[in-house]
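Give me structure tokens for this 148-residue protein.
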Amino acid sequence: MPLLLRLRVGLHLLVCLNCAQEVERFEVTRDILYNDFMPLSPGFEDSVMAQIAAEEEDALTAFDAEETPLNALTIPGGLSTRGWVIAGLITLVSLVTAFFGLDFERVALEAGMSFLLPVGITIGIVLTAYGALFIGSHLKEFSERFGL
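Here you go.
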């Protein structure tokens, strides 16, 4: 803080008792928070770093055990196969029902067939990408189920 501003604040605190009390309360609170509220934990950093090192070693040993990279990247608690199918059906229904709302007929009549081509391509891209993600994330299950 600049010197002139510090002088102005100091003079104000000499004159205004309310502000002086407020500053004193802030200083007491700051001292309590720094010293008494959260005592320092001397071994906390060492224990956290030890856990991180142990997790890295576990990940390396799991990777060395020839686990497939897809299994190493699976997220616990992710969507099950049933969840993927339900989400896919919801996506399909929402894409198909887009033709029934928002004055789609009027827009389609004004734009003609040139409007239907991008809509069809968009639907195809969305469904293909979703199918690829679904199959790619469940490749091991499908290969076991169908004996591939």
